[in-house]
């Protein structure tokens, strides 16, 4: 991971790349001519060296920068290891499954794997004072953390406010995670998941429409063209894309990592 100091030059470079730090224009209010800056000069932000952040994306919370596609807005703090496709809408107060204690061991207590904890250091100090020997954890219990894997989120995903996610999962294109849902497993494309524990509520559309939407890869089409297509009607959309074919402009995914772009002159 790369830790980058926030400067006025960094702000100006992000502005020039159309990477925004706050959501604006909501509730009918027009966006300001000068986009607000959330990160303070002198603080640090964390970026994965190979992460690509496309223009017209918004990182509205946190000091880590995940990979993001165009027209994606993220209003919760995500780790820099996460990745989002295009056209994602991610609400506030999203959290992640915390530290996993070793349920497969005889004891889940951190006293058997973490000798820097306050109660262990106090105990070790007292025993050393009494006996002259300081206890130590010579064979710590393993604590695998599979829930800390990278989150992979597809295109056009909506994650509602207050959802809880497990790291290391994939959320497919077009999926919906309802507010407050606890999601610990992969989510299939165009599936709505809600509840605690998270369960499949339904698919958004009939199977053939879901497959056609994925096959169309409509998120690659230039926004100017998408605005002329029937986005409110999934079946009409896939038919229109099939009919217009090569008339529609496709925007190839950006390949240049954000870190490299930040080094270029404004």
Short description:
Helices cover 20% and strands 17% of the residues. The chain contains six helices and 17 strands. It has helices at residues 8-16, 118-131, 207-216, 223-226, 234-244, 258-263, and strands spanning 2-5, 19-20, 44-47, 57-59, 64-65, 73-74, 83-84, 89-90, 95-96, 152-153, 158-159, 164-165, 170-171, 176-177, 182-183, 191-194, 199-203.
Per-chain topology:
Blueprint: E1 2-5, H1 8-16, E2 19-20, E3 44-47, E4 57-59, E5 64-65, E6 73-74, E7 83-84, E8 89-90, E9 95-96, H2 118-131, E10 152-153, E11 158-159, E12 164-165, E13 170-171, E14 176-177, E15 182-183, E16 191-194, E17 199-203, H3 207-216, H4 223-226, H5 234-244, H6 258-263
Parallel strand pairs: 2-4, 3-5, 4-6, 6-8, 7-10, 8-11, 9-12, 10-13, 11-14, 12-15, 14-16
Antiparallel strand pairs: 1-3, 16-17
Helix pairs in contact: 3-5
3D structure, described in words:
Pfam families: Hexapep. Belongs to the transferase hexapeptide repeat family. There is one protein chain. With 266 residues, the protein is an alpha/beta fold. The chain has two domains: 2-99 and 149-205, UDP N-Acetylglucosamine Acyltransferase, domain 1; 101-144, no CATH class. The chain contains six helices and 17 strands. The chain has helices at residues 8-16, 118-131, 207-216, 223-226, 234-244, 258-263; strands spanning 2-5, 19-20, 44-47, 57-59, 64-65, 73-74, 83-84, 89-90, 95-96, 152-153, 158-159, 164-165, 170-171, 176-177, 182-183, 191-194, 199-203. A hairpin with a 4-residue loop joins strand 16 (191-194) and strand 17. The mean pLDDT is 95.
